[in-house]
Amino acid sequence: MREIMIVTRENLINLILAALLLAVPFAAEAFGQPFYVTLATRIAILALAATGLNLALGLGGLVSFGHAAFFGIGGYVAGILAAHAFSGDPLLFGLSGTKQMWVIWVVAVILSGLVGLVIGAISLRTSGVYFIMITLAFAQMVYYFAISWPAYGGEDGLSILVRNQFPGVSTMRPLTFFLICYVVLLLALALFALIRASRFGAALQAARQNEVRVATVGIQPYRIRLTGFAISAAVTGLAGALFADLNRFVSPSMLSWHMSGELIVLIILGGTGRLFGPLAGAALYVIFEYALGGLTERWQFFLGLILLVVVLFARGGLLGLLAGKAKHG
Amino acid sequence: MTLALALEQLLNGLQLGVMLFLMAAGLTLIFGVMGLINLAHGSLYMVGAFACATVAAWTGSFWIGLIASLAAAAAAGAIVELVVIRRLYDRDHLDQVLATFALILMFSEGTRWLFGSFPLYLDIPPLLQGAVALPGGTEYPVYRLAIILAGAIVAFGLYLLISRTRLGMRIRAGESDREMIGALGVDIRTLYTVVFALGAALAGLAGAMVGALQSVQVGMGEPVLILAFVVIVIGGIGSIKGALLGALLVGVTDTMGRFLLPKILALFVAPAQAGMIGGAAASMLIYIVMAVILAVKPRGLFPAAHA
């Protein structure tokens, strides 16, 4: 943890980012612009999802092109539990659905973590291009399952009529829901920092840098990576549950491979392996989307162009430009 | 369930397999020679389909459209290689994934810009309209049989190109040792552009041929691209033989699974449920096959020696 306590340019920028994200919704609320509160919530949730992926990709060097699967599973957990609570039909083994966010979160984390464990167990037998393609293929499998399984809306998706509840507050108020997401994001960032500084995190990063050496000192890279992958999946699943509650809607598009691509893009835009890379990337992405979307219908074309330029010429991402080179790499 | 129906489905599976082979052959060739993972391959498939539909509408001839699709996809491939892809050969796979993902966004939105959001339609040429009788009494469209035949010819042609020509020799040499053939005086940059354009032309051909079966629209290449990934992962990345067998396996498994699984399940549960569970299970079948093959052989059925 010590490295995030020291005053460096990167930590200063991180602090400013976190403060800005908190300040914008309050200002928006004060000026009667609730739309910007939603925009900030979107940034916080996407940053959370990308923080999950950053554990696998940034620390472990595991280029997962299938994290949309976990994002979507989290979303469907929220949607399905809420739908059962609404209709009163029992879900499984006589258990009923729920509208309590924290129960949904626990289920989303456990379920996406377990699916991550299974997908990881098979995919991590391979590496490099194979790993990229296999994680992509597994996510597609979940995607096609969601489309062809008619019980929960199939291709049309599933609406959440009223946003799920959190004890003591009104989640329908945009600012309150933003604060919930913001706190969850900060907790996830703390988890990321803790893991990065732990023995486990050191092993995970070492496995990225030199697999043979890690094996030589008696640590099995496979197990380390699998654990990292499952935790990463669980965090992204949690983000999915929040995303479903933000839109009050979940559909197979949360599971699509464009989503997986976007999550990687967020990390790269911000800066790979950096604590606040996902937040910087998510902010940049949502602002791009909003600003370009206001200027031209064809914003995706220009997003592609910007992304191409970043990959070809500005490899450190936004934080790389602002805060200089990362210490590890 | 009649035998004739099963035969028809088997042929549909073969046709899907042949089309996947055209996609997978280009992907695996590009990976084998240049070590590049190209997500934008599905966009080249789309370019082929749009070129064929547009030129066929102008000239009234599917065949001129087909030639145009080859030319357009090869040209698009060559331009993309010259401007973007050649900067990526020395980068890690993450950068390649991102840059080609960016290319997909640009290709899709650019095509929507040029052609609008409405799908185009492409008619089957008069020569290949109609159907032939299959043993058992059903009929099968001539056009689909023609696709299978065309795929077989391309596969054979590719085999001849790679094993019998000077270009093929250079491609094989490039797969085994890139630096060495550069040192021996082969212009490796041109070779890369040619290989990329060749792969693009194959994808464009697949797009044009399928365009007459489905509508021609933005995003049509993406489901095919992911199936092609499954194919080359099963076959072994870098192996053309693996791509051929993997494509046929995936095509037939997918089609027969969708046809048979609901019927098999109907023996055990109510028909409506069998249709639902069977349909959902069938859509996952090829991924399960892939997982099983990888559990046994992590590098695919025919691993390329160097990869």
Description of the molecule:
- The complex is a heterodimer of chains A (329) and B (307).
- With 329 residues, chain A is an all-alpha fold.
- Chain A has a single domain (2-323), classed as Orthogonal Bundle (ABC transporter involved in vitamin B12 uptake, BtuC), CATH 1.10.3470.
- Chain A has helices at 2-5, 9-30, 34-59, 68-87, 101-123, 128-148, 174-197, 199-209, 211-216, 221-247, 257-270, 277-295, 299-313, 317-323; strands spanning 158-159, 249-250.
- Chain A has a two-stranded antiparallel sheet.
- The longest helix of chain A has 27 residues, at 221-247.
- Chain B has helices spanning 3-34, 41-59, 62-83, 93-115, 142-164, 166-176, 178-183, 188-211, 221-235, 240-266, 271-296, and strands spanning 131-133, 139-141.
- Chain B has a domain at 10-219.
- Chain A binds chain B through residues 57, 63, 65, 122, 125-126, 128-130, 132-134, 136-138, 140-141, 144-145, 147-151, 257, 261, 264-265, 268, 272, 298, 300-301, 303-305, 307-308, 311-312, 315, and chain B through 31, 37, 84, 87, 93-95, 97-99, 101-106, 108-110, 112-113, 222, 226, 229-230, 232-233, 237, 276, 279-280, 282-284, 287-288, 290-291, 294-295, 298-300.
